[in-house]
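Form 12-C: Joint structure prediction
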Amino acid sequence: MNFDDLLHDPGEWLNSAPTAHPVVISSRVRLARNLVNHPFPGWAKKAERIEVLHRIKPALLSLPALEHSFGSDMNELSPVQKQILVERHLISVEHAGKGVGSAVAINAPATISIMVNEEDHLRMQALRPGFDLDSAFDAISLVDDQLDAQLEFAFDSDIGFLTACPTNVGTGMRASAMLHLPGLVLADQINQIIQSVNKIGLAVRGIHGEGTEALGNLFQISNQTTLGESEYDILRRLKEIIHTVIKHEHNARRKLVSEKLATLRDQVGRAYGILCHSWSISSKEALNLLSLIKLGLDLGAFPKEFRREVDALMTTSQPAHLQKLTDEKLAADERDRLRAFIIREKLKSFPSPDTSSFGEEQAASA
Amino acid sequence: MNFDDLLHDPGEWLNSAPTAHPVVISSRVRLARNLVNHPFPGWAKKAERIEVLHRIKPALLSLPALEHSFGSDMNELSPVQKQILVERHLISVEHAGKGVGSAVAINAPATISIMVNEEDHLRMQALRPGFDLDSAFDAISLVDDQLDAQLEFAFDSDIGFLTACPTNVGTGMRASAMLHLPGLVLADQINQIIQSVNKIGLAVRGIHGEGTEALGNLFQISNQTTLGESEYDILRRLKEIIHTVIKHEHNARRKLVSEKLATLRDQVGRAYGILCHSWSISSKEALNLLSLIKLGLDLGAFPKEFRREVDALMTTSQPAHLQKLTDEKLAADERDRLRAFIIREKLKSFPSPDTSSFGEEQAASA
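Section 2 - Result
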């Protein structure tokens, strides 16, 4: 499978059905693993990293989940290709900076992705659309078991899996869900929610993980601790909190409908008006406005069959995805114009938002 | 003629033809006059102001220009009515604050308006659509002559007409033109132009005169000095400068079309998108966006027959005009919603902006 085949489809986890979860975009579980007797990638010499990659590759190729998959050494990917994988959440920002001795393997539906020699020898993740952490965990556990049978992982019977960074030691697991929280943002309650979630030991981050900005009202909630708790306990606690945040988001949306209907209609209407008629738009503004269209969809302002298009635009309007459309190297302002064009063309098929139904829709779903 | 008749029509000077001047919205000449042997309004006691008003009224009633006119003592107008007259540039902001002893008379087409006991005993102005200072001057001079025949004006043969404020002494004339300068604003050249105009002794102000903000890219250019120069010289100098500013505005627009076409299309497109789909909009934002629609019209993005509607919206979307539509007292947020509704409804008849023709249109008119 080559790179373009991988991109042909937005990936199963991005391919949201009209019945997609209105708050949780996707669920993800990643495991960090390292081989015994090999230095962590950050300490290893180039030759040592290459040796580790050579040991891991045959094991990856034997995985049933990776049949007909896409695989590449990082030095063989162009900067644009790397950035596209980042924009699709298939590799980390850090991994995009890697070259010789690092690699990535991604299964055909783009639901499993394995980074070799990122911060650890192995960073493997499973992605699922909607709120489905259990199935993501099951999928990546299967991969973990199959690799464990062929590779010897660094493991301490007292503390668990050993990792390059102490924050991953133990389970080596980071489970996360990407939540779309426009209600909490518009109602100005998001910071309060973030603080509460942080207080109980979970992390809230922007769309590309640690240290990134919250764009498009998208927030990742994940476990912070990997030590002293079983995978099941971590997942149970995380799911509980996510359920609570979902409830708060629904409450915030209901409250906006009942108390700030004009503001809500105004926000959705303006987002639609700007996206239909702008000739230049930054990736950041596009994400923020598409988020409002998505909220409008959830509240019944657009027919449900348009959800897929909006979700796809949130990815395809990202810089590297735009760059991929043309052979010439685009400057930032050229990308902004191309982005505006693509969004305008897509939104041509959308009807004007019918925000008159906000009240009833919300009442029906309440 | 009652107040509502006056409002029925936007007033001849606002009733822009499809062939209206693309830069100069309106021209205005006002004269300040005072009766001899009566203290200026600011120093006068209430009884003295009433006496002046009683002396002036019969003279006004005899004016042929004011036949079938609207006239009222200021204390008989409601705050909303006063504010509407301000929004139509028929009285000054200061005059709206006046009560017993002050009055206003406005001819039926709303092209002549006379304030009694504003800062001076008489402030009379003639308004004209487009760039037509001469005809405005002729109209108000005729009124001046006819009043002069009945009232004795305070006049000094050395310095000219005496006025309450020294800045008006001499001719007592302030001639001004309202210019729509979106090109200079978008090209970031407006401050430079303002400074140059100021340097040669003319004033540039916002849409409601002295000390007001420049909204909707509208600027008033007027003479500063009234002493030592004849009316004709003042007008000649003012017209010269306005011609120069018009040329700069056209150059700026041409340059935007040739060098920043995407920005221009983006600005006009977004303005249209927001005005068509917002559910709440402030008077300030509405004016600024309508200004961009107006620029779009000038450049051929909309059929010329829509000009009248855009120009009318710039006035009818002002706070007091909105308040007039309903019997209930509107809060600011209610006005913002009503304004958005009215603009949305009006723009429904507009086609989407066809900015693809910007290049050719401009080339054709260049």
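Section 3 - Comments
Residues 260-365 of chain B form one domain. The CA atoms of residues 178 and 220 of chain B lie 4 Å apart.
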